[in-house]
Amino acid sequence: MEEKIVEYKAKIKDMPEDERPRERLIKYGPKHLSTAELLAIVMRVGTREENVLALAKKLLEKYNLPSLSKSDVIELRKTLGIGDAKACQIVASFELGRRLLTYESKPPIRTPQDVADMFMPELRYLKKEIFKGVYLDTKNRVIGDETVSIGSLNTNIVHPREVFKKAIEKSAASIILVHNHPSGDPTPSSEDIKLTKRMLEAGNLLGIEVFDHVIIGDGKYISLKEKELI
To answer: 87 with 46: CB under 8 angstroms?
Structure first.
């Protein structure tokens, strides 16, 4: 009879204190931790088979960091040892990071590049099309942005009513339209151009100028105004 070999897996609490991720973060700060250690802190606990640090390393072997940041809960649940709680913690941590990159203290918008710099970190890796209205004051400073639509971009889903309702609520002087192309190619479609023209017409009626429509790809963007498509 073949002898069964039992392999013991070290638990985090059994590791020396100076090797535990949380204790290392407290002592040295987050910059001195590896990506796996930071991910282990986010996930908190491992499984019966392996500790959380080993699980974090396995997850990073399957995904690189940009790929992991694009993963959703459903996809992560397919990974061994990742349940709803861990999946939600991972997704939420990346979303907080994206929001921090576009958080307040935003300078006036002067060029399409300014818009791309502001929203590229948030939108470039998403797997669904997100349509946003970016609302500006009389000095072209951002006073807010709202996600108007999630999913396929067409005139049935993105309606001027929803875009300008938020603009009126925020007393915006003007707006910029922003959406992403999950393919990574920001080239505007005929539907993108048609939709933009509808928004321009609605803005003219309401006295709220539509400055531009910026399409975000993977590391690149296109301004419909720069391309003289509007």
So the answer is: no
Q: How confident is the model at residue 179 (pLDDT cuts 50, 70, 90)?
A: very high
Model pTM above 0.70: no
Tell me, what DSSP letter sits at residue 127? S
- Architecture of domain 12-100 in this structure: Orthogonal Bundle (1.10)
Please write the tens of the pLDDT for every residue from 46-56.
888 888 998 89
Longest dimension (CA), the chain: 85
Please name which of 128, 132, 133, 103 lies closest in space to residue 118, comparing C-alpha atoms: 103
Interatomic CA distance for residues 154 and 44, integer angstroms: 41
The CATH superfamily holding the domain 105-223 is Cytidine Deaminase, domain 2 (3.40.140.10)
